[in-house]
Write a structure and sequence with these properties.
Layout: H1 4-15, E1 19-24, E2 29-34, E3 37-42, H2 46-58, E4 61-65, H3 71-74, E5 80-83, E6 90-95, H4 99-118, H5 129-149, E7 154-159, H6 166-173, E8 178-182, H7 190-193, H8 199-206, E9 211-214, H9 217-230, E10 234-236, E11 241-244, E12 247-253, H10 260-268, H11 270-283, E13 289-297, H12 303-316, E14 324-332, H13 338-358, E15 366-369, H14 376-385, E16 388-391, H15 400-408, E17 415-419, E18 432-434, H16 439-450, H17 454-470, H18 473-485
Helix pairs in contact: 1-2, 1-18, 4-5, 5-6, 11-14, 12-13, 12-16
The chain binds adenosine-5'-diphosphate-glucose (ADQ).
C-alpha cells in the first residue's frame, strides 16, 4: 500500500536533483483578516484535497494565486510562506493578480468559457476575446513566477484548466524543464470543443507539455480525437501520444484519489464520534433516515435535480414521509458569476417548495446548509451519520466526495448512490449507479440503498474501500511522477 512515507522515500530517489513544483490557480492555504486578526485556513476544493497530502509528503514549491486579504502581509521577500502554517512541510509561492486580471482570467475565461465547455451540463460557454487576453497574460505571469522559483532541472506540475498556456510560455523560455499538466475536469468530445474560438491557442499551449494527465481513458480519447480533427499533428493511438511541431506529448489516464488512512483515522477519532451526537440538534428536524449530499455549489453537481428526485421519492414512497431527511451541505463558489447566483436562488426556491408540500409539524424533508464550512472531524461525522450519500453530478471529472464517503464509512452504516457521469463511477462499481437526469431512477435508487440489507452494504463497501486503499492519493502521485521521470 502507498503511504506518505513510501511516496517521500521513492520520490527522493527518483527525483534526484530535480526540483518539484506544483502550480495551480487556487492556493492550498489562504490568509485573511478576520476581526482585526490574521487567520489562515485551508481552502476547499477537490484539487487541494488531493494535492496537499502529496506536497506534505514530498516537499517542494506550490505556486498559486494569493487571493486572501492578508496574503501579502505574511509572505517573505520572495512572496513565499511555509505551509501548512501549524507544521510547515513545503513552500507556497504566491502570485499577485489585479482585480481586472482576476475578473478576466478566472471569473471570465476559466469559468465562463472553459468550465461550461468541458462539462456536458448544458450551460452555454461565453468566449470573450478580452477575457482570453487576460487569461493568456495571467498564464505568462504564472510562468514568470515559476521560472523565478526554479532551477534548470525541475519538474513543473501544472494543475487544471486555468493554466493551458503556461507550458508554452515556460518551454519558450527554458526547454530543459519537464512540464506536465493534469486536467481535473472532463475533456469534451471534438464536436463540442470545435466551437471554441481560441481552440488553436489552447491546444498549442497544452501540447507544449511533456505529458498531459486526465482522470479516465475516455477523456484521453476525447483529447486525442480533438487534436486529430483540429491540428496537423501526428496522433499515436496505440502509445497515446501526440507529436506536434516536432514535440511529443504523452496523454495518460490517472484517476485521482484521497488520503485513505487520514480519512479513516479522523472518522474514527473521539472528536468525530462526539460530533455525530450534535447532528440532530444541528438539523432541527426529526429524522429516522438521513440522506446526505456534499458539493461545491455548482450547476455541474446536479443539486436542483436531486431536490426534484427527493420530491418524487416521497411522492412514490409515502411511507418515508415524516421519517426521511435530505441534508445538502455545501460551500459557495464563483458567486460573482450570474449563473451561480441564479443557481443558489433556484436551489432555495425548490427546497422551499418541496418542504411546503410535505411539511408536518416540526418535520420537513429538505435541510440546506449550502454555505457551511465544517472542520474535518465534524465533516466526517456527517458521513458517518448518513444512511446514504447521494452524488448527483451531471458531469464530473472524478468526484472526490464519493471516495471520501466510502473511506469515512467506518461503521458500514451507509450506502453510496453515485451518478454514472462521474469519473468515480468507473472505479466504484459496487455503488448504486444512477443517471442523474432520471428523476424516477434516483427516487428508486434512494429506496434501494435505504433498504439494502446490512450484509450487502458491508460487502459492497468493503470492496470499494479495498479499491481506494490500493489506489489512494499517494499511489496516484507516484504513478504520475514515475511516468514523468521516465521522460528524462
Ligand atoms: P471539485 O469540483 O471541487 O473538484 P470534488 O472532487 O467533489 O469536486 O471535491 C470537492 C472537495 O471539497 C471535497 O474534497 C470535499 O471534501 C470538499 N468540500 C465540499 N464541501 C465541503 C464543506 N461544506 N466543508 C468542507 N469541505 C467540503 C475538481 C473536479 C472533480 C475532481 C477534483 C479533483 O471538478 O471532478 O474530482 O477536482 O481532481
Amino acid at each position: 500500500m502507498w503511504t506518505p512515507e513510501r511516496l517521500r522515500d521513492t520520490m527522493r530517489q527518483k527525483l534526484g536533483d530535480h526540483q518539484f513544483l506544483v502550480v495551480s490557480n487556487r492556493e492550498p492555504y489562504v490568509h485573511d483578516y478576520r476581526g482585526g486578526q490574521i487567520r489562515s485556513q485551508k481552502t476547499i476544493s477537490g484539487l487541494v484535497t488531493a494535492l496537499d497530502p502529496v506536497m506534505q509528503a514530498c516537499g517542494g514549491i506550490w505556486v498559486a494565486f494569493g487571493s486572501g486579504s492578508a496574503d501579502r502581509e505574511v509572505v517573505d521577500g520572495n512572496d513565499c510562506i511555509q505551509v501548512p502554517p501549524e507544521h510547515p512541510r513545503y513552500a507556497l509561492r504566491r502570485v499577485w493578480l489585479s482585480k481586472e486580471e482576476e475578473s478576466g482570467y478566472y471569473y471570465g475565461y476559466s469559468n465562463q468559457a472553459l468550465w461550461p465547455l468541458s462539462h456536458t451540463a448544458y450551460r452555454q460557454p461565453t468566449f470573450d476575446a478580452k477575457d482570453w487576453e487576460y487569461y493568456d497574460e495571467v498564464n505568462k505571469k504564472f510562468s514568470e513566477a515559476i521560472l523565478d522559483s526554479c532551477r534548470d532541472r525541475a519538474f513543473v506540475w501544472l494543475q487544471d484548466y486555468h493554466l493551458v498556456r503556461c507550458a508554452k510560455h515556460l518551454k519558450d523560455r527554458n526547454s530543459s524543464l519537464i512540464v506536465s499538466l493534469f486536467w481535473h475536469i472532463p475533456w469534451p468530445n471534438a464536436e463540442v470543443f470545435r466551437i471554441c474560438p481560441q481552440k488553436f491557442d489552447i491546444l498549442e499551449g497544452l501540447l507544449a507539455n511533456d505529458m498531459l494527465g486526465f482522470h479516465i481513458l475516455y477523456h484521453c480519447h476525447n483529447f486525442l480525437s480533438t487534436v486529430e480533427q483540429e491540428l496537423e499533428a501526428k496522433v499515436d493511438w496505440e502509445e497515446l501520444a501526440v507529436t506536434y511541431q516536432g514535440h511529443r506529448t504523452l496523454v495518460r489516464p490517472f484517476p485521482i484519489s484521497v488520503d485513505d488512512d487520514n480519512i479513516c483515522r479522523i472518522a474514527k477519532s473521539p472528536e468525530s464520534t462526539e460530533a455525530i451526537k450534535n447532528i440532530p440538534a444541528e438539523l432541527e428536524v426529526p429524522f429516522e433516515y438521513l440522506t446526505l449530499s456534499v458539493d461545491r455549489v455548482d450547476y455541474t453537481k446536479g443539486i436542483p435535480e436531486k431536490i426534484r428526485a427527493i420530491d418524487r421519492f416521497l411522492e412514490k414512497y409515502p411511507e418515508y414521509q415524516g421519517k426521511f431527511v435530505f441534508l445538502q451541505l455545501g460551500v459557495l463558489s464563483r458567486i460573482r458569476i450570474s449563473t451561480y447566483k441564479q443557481l443558489i436562488d433556484e436551489i432555495q426556491g425548490l427546497a422551499e417548495e418541496v418542504n411546503w408540500k410535505y411539511r408536518v409539524g416540526s418535520w420537513c424533508p429538505i435541510v440546506l446548509m449550502i454555505n457551511r464550512r465544517l472542520d474535518y472531524p465534524a465533516y466526517l461525522a456527517h458521513y458517518r451519520a448518513a444512511d446514504l450519500l447521494l452524488v448527483g453530478s451531471l458531469h464530473d471529472g472524478m468526484n472526490l466526495v464519493a471516495k471520501e464517503y466510502v473511506m469515512a464509512n467506518v461503521d458500514y452504516k451507509g450506502m453510496l448512490v453515485l451518478s454514472r457521469f462521474t469519473g468515480a463511477a468507473r472505479e466504484l462499481k459496487e455503488a448504486v449507479l444512477v443517471n442523474p437526469y432520471d428523476t424516477e431512477a434516483i427516487a428508486d435508487a434512494i429506496k434501494e440503498a435505504l433498504e439494502m440489507p446490512k450484509k450487502e452494504k458491508r460487502r459492497r463497501m468493503t470492496l470499494m474501500q479495498r479499491n481506494i486503499r490500493e489506489h489512494n492519493i499517494f499511489w496516484w502521485a507516484h504513478e504520475y511522477i514515475d511516468s514523468l521521470i521516465k521522460l528524462t
